[in-house]
Amino acid sequence: MLMEFDSDQRLWRDTVRDVVAKECSPAFARAVVDGGVDPDALWKLYNKQGWTEFTDRADMVELGIVLEELGRGTDPTPYLATMTQFAPLAPGYALDGAAGAAVYSGISARPDNDGWILQGTASHILDGDRADRIAVVTAAGTFIVRGADVMTTRTPVFDPLLHVAEVSLSGVRVTRENRVDVDPALALPVALTGLALTMIGACQRTLDMVLDHVKNRQQFGAAIGSFQAVKHKAADMHVAIERARALAYYAALTIAAGDDEHCVVAASMAKASAGECQSLVFRHGLQLFGAMGFTWENDLQFALKRAKAGELLLGGAAEHRAKIFEERHAVDI
């Protein structure tokens, strides 16, 4: 597997980065939170740019590049949930500008004549409150339901730009036409890898802001970036990000190559590494910014919160380390 971007991928990264820098700036993020600006126009732009066309597993690296840049920009749209959670569970469903979400557990399916009745409540569903369609995983299979057919309540979370909701299905009837033939175990690695790359983008944004700050902040007649302790913390942040990025793109490569045997473990490795990365970057980033890092007026908060929120979704670093151990232990036995 080639572990470096080729010329086309570098061009794609630069193109996406330019669009995100222009259209999804910290000022726009602040306007969404403070001023109630609707990010729907930004979502439509992503569709117009063709960013929602990466639904094939073979496109996972290119999709990953978009996700990392959107993590850097603290994207307020339903792109992450739609592309990495809904789309892998709904093959054959054209997105056509619609937002999607996924429910992985908490819902039961009871047979009813020629269909099923879905019942239950699921918590912490990314973009569940604004999804047009929701992929619901049950023991009887995976079903696609309309967002209008479920009850949702948005849950306040650490990241004010992130939509997380409680989703309730009460007697929702589905037929064979709503059932999709997909293995959720092979769809989950896409979601985990997407979250990992989003967190890495947010961590990179934190490091970029820290480096700019320590180069300009003067203390004792010198830039604080010249102090050895500050250099060590910045270097530790850089190493953690590069390590997490390498694992995340390795996971993306295994998915793109159709390596079902290794992609599950690789995705857990990526999510665990990204979680450990954000912990270090969060701590050092706040310390190097001093008291300003805690303030609402400082844009650092958006990147920090997006990285931390990503750690809390779909299992943290400790949980995925345990899964990796169980998988390797089972192989050894």
From TrEMBL:
The lineage of its organism: Bacteria, Bacillati, Actinomycetota, Actinomycetes, Mycobacteriales. Its cofactor is FAD. Residues 194-321 form the Acyl-CoA dehydrogenase/oxidase C-terminal domain. Keywords: FAD, Flavoprotein, Oxidoreductase. Residues 7-78 form the Acyl-CoA dehydrogenase/oxidase N-terminal domain. This is Alkylation response protein AidB-like acyl-CoA dehydrogenase. Gene3D superfamilies: Acyl-CoA dehydrogenase/oxidase, N-terminal domain, Butyryl-CoA Dehydrogenase, subunit A, domain 2, Butyryl-CoA Dehydrogenase, subunit A, domain 3. Belongs to the acyl-CoA dehydrogenase family. One of its GO terms (molecular function) is acyl-CoA dehydrogenase activity. Coiled coil: none annotated. Pfam families: Acyl-CoA_dh_1, Acyl-CoA_dh_N.
